[in-house]
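Researcher: Let's do a round of design. I'm pasting the structure tokens now; please hold your answer until I've finished.
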């Protein structure tokens, strides 16, 4: 499943699950902000030491919030009729032109930077059903 398939699936699911708000960009924007706030709250608690990234339930909570964010973001991309792959390609090109020093002999390998067989250092990567934190 590619990113545009995910956008289409999210739009379909939203129309089925929430027909009264699936086409409401205001609702989608507020829901995206709400889910982002929920993720920020978990990260805040990790930062201050009251939660641990080593706790599988905390990792599961982060995974769940990131999935919620992805769903609302995909819905918004679909509502605007954007091609998600093209949005990324255009923004990446813009950022490359903006942030990479064209005169430098050393250019980072951006593709290699985002592709790694190594799991993240903070813990498990599999999705565990979300629990309230």
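Researcher: That's everything. Go ahead.
Model: Designed sequence:
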């Amino acid at each position: 499943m590619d990113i545009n398939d995910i956008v289409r699936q999210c739009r379909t699911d939203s129309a089925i699950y929430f027909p009264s708000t699936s086409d409401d960009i205001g609702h989608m924007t507020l829901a995206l902000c709400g889910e982002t706030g929920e993720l920020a709250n978990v990260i805040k608690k990790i930062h201050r030491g009251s939660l641990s990234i080593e706790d599988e339930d905390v990792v599961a909570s982060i995974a769940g919030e990131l999935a919620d964010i992805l769903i609302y973001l995909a819905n918004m991309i679909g509502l605007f009729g954007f091609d998600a792959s093209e949005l990324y390609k255009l923004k990446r090109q813009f950022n490359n032109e903006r942030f990479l020093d064209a005169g430098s002999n050393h250019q980072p390998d951006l593709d290699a930077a985002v592709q790694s067989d190594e799991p993240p250092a903070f813990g498990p990567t599999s999705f565990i059903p979300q629990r309230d934190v």
